[in-house]
Design goal:
The protein is of the alpha+beta class. The chain folds into five domains: 164 residues, Rossmann fold; 82 residues, Translation factors (Elongation Factor Tu (Ef-tu), domain 3, Beta Barrel); 101 residues, Beta Barrel (Elongation Factor Tu (Ef-tu), domain 3), CATH 2.40.30; 100 residues, no CATH class; 116 residues, Winged helix-like DNA-binding domain superfamily/Winged helix DNA-binding domain (Arc Repressor Mutant, subunit A), CATH 1.10.10.10. The strands form eight sheets. It has a six-stranded mixed sheet with strand order 2-3-1-4-5-6, with helices on both faces.
Length: 594
């Protein structure tokens, strides 16, 4: 199917033309037919001689209904611009031309109608001058009369050529259906209609309304009054759904594939017309929507729009800005649906304008990630620029340059922390993440470069060496080790450790340096002690009691209890129900068989 909008100043001539082509009445209201004035969007269709089906969205021509006209034209890929031979080129025709040119319409026809009332020759000759410099300049033009039938076959042939030349839609694209009509049907509920430009909708699909974030479920689908289970763009679609009432939807809302579109109230746009300034307050038209927006110029061609209500947009979307007061229109292309706040530095707006001009040339996901530094992968997908080469870290994309800089800063932070706190286990990971402004602490481990690593929730280098211990502490640790050299299990008491001025921080540093091990209960031994204990306990008759172990190890009850519990926990010994133990393995062996 193909969908065209019919635009033009003389409504009665336009509606009559569509009526003659399709055999259907585009004016839905009796007042429209009585006054010969299109007040709202009309929807009709036909089958060409080639078998192609064409739907028409008939839009109002009167200047008071320009917003409605824009809602009909916005989502439609091609247009018929209708001019009456007996009326000639009018100011309102010129406004429609300006709007279509600002939209950047790339396919269509110009039709001079009512040729039974006036000779179309003069107007046909003038068309190239009126259309010069616009995107309609190369459009074919035909003349006809819906009353006498003159030229109608030529018009049908021109329509066939037009639809045959139009590019195939992207049926695999995510869905975005701009709603142009909302109503209820007794027994069916809420129904919305719109032009599906790309993608696919099926019964049972769940779609999201961006303005409210509500989810709707598709209960039924119609296209051209036919019930279907699936519809692909380009098509006119009517959807019966549940989840949102008729009062919660308006023309200009959209139904979206979840997670596929950026829903935003701020976006950056590159304008097509840079010759004039912009009003501070304008209306942004996108699809069938009309949203009040504040404008801020960014360089020569860029503008940042702050919308009153969020809209679903993506890179490359065409928008139109209209000043309701002056009726001036200017078109533009979205190049950043989710821009970051501008720095509060002199010249930031100009620099951003230069960036936007480069971004408008073609989408570059790697360059866009470099500009953002860090971005969630699911958010980046909604920008519409594709995905960069960078692999995601816990769902986050980190630009290579940003990653390198963050790694460098982590090294600086950790080194400075070690200098100021030599006995500390390292800088807390949470503190590092907060200092760097990381959006997710799970990203931190991937940013660490040797010698830094994450141990016990702290950023530290390789195990602390004795050279990093302050002199007095190293001397005290050496004294403990000399004592243990004479008897590996003669561990100093907490009071003796305190007398040596070995605080818990100093002892923890000695453990990290590999000088001591902590077996619990305030007992510190050398790393070689467990193997020596296993040898001594292995010489006993198995199983053995705690008392016999104490005698064999020549130590206190405090130390032997802590040591046996440590050996139990590491699988060297096994505690029996009668509170005796047996040796399972030595610390450097695999567990012994039962």
């Amino acid at each position: 199917m193909h969908v065209l909008a019919t635009a033009g100043h003389v409504d009665h001539g336009k509606s009559a033309l569509v009526r003659a082509l399709t055999g259907m009445e585009p004016d839905r209201y009796a007042e429209e037919r009585r006054r010969g004035l299109t007040l709202d969007l009309g929807f009709v269709w036909m089958t060409l001689p080639t078998g192609e089906r064409v739907a028409f969205v008939d839009v109002p021509g009167h200047e008071r209904f320009v917003t409605t006209m824009l809602a009909g034209v916005g989502p439609v890929p091609a247009v018929l611009l209708v001019v009456a031979a007996d009326g000639g080129w009018s100011a309102q025709t010129q406004e429609h031309l300006s709007i279509l040119d600002a939209w950047g319409v790339r396919a269509g026809l110009v039709v001079v109608t009512r040729c039974d009332l006036a000779d179309p020759g003069e107007l046909m000759d003038e068309l190239p001058q009126w259309l010069a410099g616009t995107c309609l300049a190369e459009f074919p033009a035909v003349s006809c009369s819906s009353v006498t039938g003159q030229g109608m076959d030529e018009l049908r042939d021109a329509l066939a050529l037009l639809v045959n030349a139009m590019p195939a839609p992207e049926v695999q694209a995510p869905t975005r259906l701009w709603i142009d009509r909302v109503f209820t049907i007794r027994g069916a509920g809420t129904v919305v209609t719109g032009t599906l430009a790309a993608g696919r909708i099926a019964v049972g699909d769940e779609l999201v309304v961006p303005s409210s974030r509500h989810t709707v479920t598709v209960r039924g689908l119609q296209t051209l009054n036919e019930q279907v289970s699936t519809v692909e763009g380009v098509a006119r679609v009517a959807i019966n759904h549940r989840g949102v009432t008729v009062d919660e939807l308006v023309r200009g809302d959209a139904l979206l594939t979840r997670g596929a579109w950026a829903v935003t109230d701020t976006l950056d746009v590159v304008l097509s017309d840079v010759g004039q300034g912009l009003a501070a307050e304008m209306t942004m038209h996108i699809g069938a929507g009309a949203i009040p927006a504040r404008t801020r110029r960014l360089g020569d061609r860029g503008v940042r729009l702050s919308l009153r209500t969020p809209a679903a947009v993506a890179y490359g979307d065409r928008i139109l800005l209209r000043d309701p007061g002056s009726r001036r229109v200017v078109g533009g292309d979205v190049v950043d649906p989710l821009p970051t706040p501008l720095p509060r530095r002199r010249g930031a707006a100009l620099r951003r304008g230069d960036e936007l001009a480069q971004m408008a040339i073609s989408p570059d996901p790697d360059a866009e990630l470099e500009r953002r530094g860090i971005e969630r992968r699911d958010i980046f997908i909604t920008l519409g620029v594709g995905l960069p080469k960078t692999e995601a870290i816990e769902g986050w994309l980190v630009a290579p340059r940003t990653r390198s800089e963050l790694s460098r800063r982590i090294g600086q932070l950790a080194a400075e922390h070690r200098r100021l706190h030599p006995l500390d286990a390292g800088m807390a990971a949470g503190a590092v993440s907060r200092t760097l402004g990381l959006p997710d602490p799970r990203v931190l481990p991937a940013l660490l470069q040797p010698p830094w690593k994450l141990v016990g929730g702290r950023v530290t280098a390789a195990e602390t060496s004795t050279e990093t211990l302050p002199g007095p502490i190293k001397t005290a640790i050496d004294a403990v080790r000399n004592r243990l050299a004479d008897n590996p299990f003669d561990a100093p008491t907490p009071a003796e450790l305190a007398a040596l001025e070995l605080t818990s921080e100093a002892l923890a540093a000695a453990v990290r340096a590999g000088q001591l091990i902590s077996i619990g209960g305030g007992v510190f031994l050398t790393p070689e002690a467990p193997a020596a204990a296993a040898v001594a306990l292995g010489a006993l008759d198995q199983p053995f009691s705690t008392s016999r172990a104490r005698t064999a190890l020549q130590t206190s009850r405090r130390v032997v209890l802590a040591l046996l519990l440590w050996l139990d926990a590491t699988g060297v010994t096994r505690r029996l129900p009668d509170d005796r133990r047996e040796l399972c393995r030595r610390p450097d062996q695999s567990p012994l068989s039962n």
